[in-house]
Structure formats: C-alpha cells, structure tokens
Amino acid sequence: MTALQNQSDFTHFNDQGRAKMVNVGEKPESCRHAAASARVLVSPETFGLIASGGMKKGDVLTVAQIAGVMGAKRTPDLIPMCHPIPLSGIDLTLTLNEDACCVDIRAEVSCSGKTGVEMEALTAAATAALTVYDMCKAVQKDMVITDVMLQEKSGGVHGDFIREGQS
Prior knowledge:
Elements: E1 30-41, H1 44-52, H2 60-73, H3 75-78, E2 89-97, E3 102-113, H4 118-136, E4 144-154, E5 161-162
Antiparallel strand pairs: 1-3, 1-4, 2-3, 4-5
C-alpha cells in the first residue's frame, strides 16, 4: 500500500494528493497556550561579552527577545500550513546559564482560537536563538543552537502535553 492510497488519513492533503491548509472554521474556539525552548552554547569569552553587554551589535538578550516576539507573529509567513491567528500574548525569557556556558531561551505564546500555538512558540524560541547567534557571530562562529523543542501545550481537541524531565 502506498502513501497516496492512505491519503485520507492525512489532514494536509487534498483529493489530488497535494498540500492544503486544514479548514478549522468549524472548530470551537478555546484558550490555547504553548511553551517552547532552545539553547545556544557559547564559549566563555562570548558568554562574558553577552553578560557584560560588551557585544558590538548591542544588548544580545534584549534584541533576541524582541526577535522572538517578531518570529512568533510571523510564523504563518514562514511555515506554509500554519494559520494566521490573533495571538493574545508572547513572552520570552532568556537566561544566562553560566554552568552550561549558554543562553537558555523559553518562549510562551497564548491565544483564544481554533488552532494551537505550538508552531508560534517554537518559531519564537528558534528565532531568538538565531538572533543570539547573529549578534555574537563576529566573536564566535562555532556556537551551537540545540534543544529546540516544545515543552508544553494546552487547549484544543488533542489535549494537554507536558514534556517529562524538562523545565
């Protein structure tokens, strides 16, 4: 049996087997929330410059926080099958983790709508991480962006999700 024979099992394909955006018009609105995280591993030198505000491009954490908010708002422009939804709130927390020599990022997104905000939270975290890289790349090229993941989500017909063993 080929994938096309089971295309009715896939919500994002039309009768011709081509991609489509799912119609959420008949779904009831509910409160939606999602949190995602990312981590940027940096050298001790880069960490010190971020912590002291000594990066030539400016305040790394503030710029990355704003970029994360912008990323969440622009998610449907970047991810083809994401619906444009009115977001109620976007909050990013960027924490300097001296023990791991990294920037830890947490993005929380909420809305009252017919579809979830997991992709918006993931895009916010990833955009903030990419911005940390951009702000620091003149000093360090071998930074590593890692651990981009959904931490939790609530609302909708698929129920709640909380990643075990993560914070």
